[in-house]
Design brief:
globular, D-amino Acid Aminotransferase, Chain A, domain 1, alpha+beta, 28% helix, 32% strand, 272 residues, 2 domains, D-amino Acid Aminotransferase, Chain A, domain 2
């Protein structure tokens, strides 16, 4: 496969990252990740708007920020990509205290889809207290989730849910929703605004369901009949236990099942 490597298209086997960069030495870099379905990059306007916002928040700049749309289309055409995921990385060099010049890399990645059973039977989550720094930016800082991966594997969890103080925040790679007595809740602040989250919020309004974007306490998990998470790779995924404690009936609930159906329909329609 070909990749965009800071100004040229070359084979992805030639990708290399300088060891002296801030990305390697300080874990400081920006990235974005999106799906290509039937040759069309899904929700690309939202993804690129978020990526540009991340660059601004992290005080990063690239020589190609204004050309992202054209670069991506050329990359898809050169590789004749129909179905894949694409990763964008902005890797800064040396910090200057103001805007930091960064190298830009865009390349296809392989990802194995979750089994159908994950959407009908649900999955467990691990939960830990942690607050990401600069959560509005999609950075490469995944230290906490990598550290907790051993515990995730032990309980079969697909992700770790973070809380700060007594408030739920987000998962390491997505957003969280609770359903309590017919009302859908999702945290409002100190989170990364997920692209799938934004689509699901729109679907909730279209379906005329009640939604509250607000502070969500950890205690509210005990009252939740349903919990689901959203992300580019997990789409809309039901959660059946958190730290070993069952959620609801232990399977995908009515609200979650309905949203899964509508999300996949919307996703497929967006690719036409």
């Amino acid at each position: 496969m070909l990749a965009f490597i800071n100004g040229i298209f070359d084979y992805d086997s030639h990708l290399n990252f300088p060891v002296h960069s801030l990305a390697v030495n300080r874990g400081y870099a920006a990235y974005e990740f999106f799906e290509v379905l039937s040759g069309k990059p899904l929700f690309i306007e939202r993804h690129l708007a978020r990526f540009r916002n991340t660059l601004q928040l992290m005080r990063l700049t690239t020589a190609f920020t204004d050309q992202l749309e054209d670069i991506i289309q050329e990359l898809l055409a050169k590789n004749q990509i129909k179905n894949a995921f694409i990763k964008i990385l902005a890797l800064p060099q040396q910090s200057t205290g103001s805007e930091i010049q960064s190298d830009l890399f865009i390349f296809p990645v392989n990802f194995t889809a979750f089994p159908e059973s994950a959407y009908t039977q649900g999955i467990p989550l691990l939960m830990k207290e942690y607050q990401r720094f600069l959560p509005e930016a999609k950075s490469t800082d995944y230290l906490a989730s990598e550290y907790y991966k051993k515990e995730m594997v032990e309980i079969g969890a697909v992700d770790v849910l973070y809380y700060s103080g007594n408030l739920l925040r987000e998962t390491s790679r997505g957003n969280v929703f609770l359903v309590i007595d017919g009302v859908v809740f999702t945290p409002a602040s100190l989170i990364l605004s997920g692209i799938t989250r934004s689509v699901v919020i729109e679907l909730i309004y279209e379906l005329k369901l009640l939604l509250k974007i607000t502070d969500v306490s950890v205690a509210m998990l005990s009252d939740a009949q349903e919990v689901f998470i959203t992300s580019t790779t997990k789409r809309v995924m039901p959660i059946v236990s958190i730290n070993g404690k069952p959620v609801g009936t232990g399977v995908s609930g009515i609200f979650t099942t309905r949203l899964i159906k509508h999300f996949f329909a919307y996703r497929n329609a967006s690719a036409k």
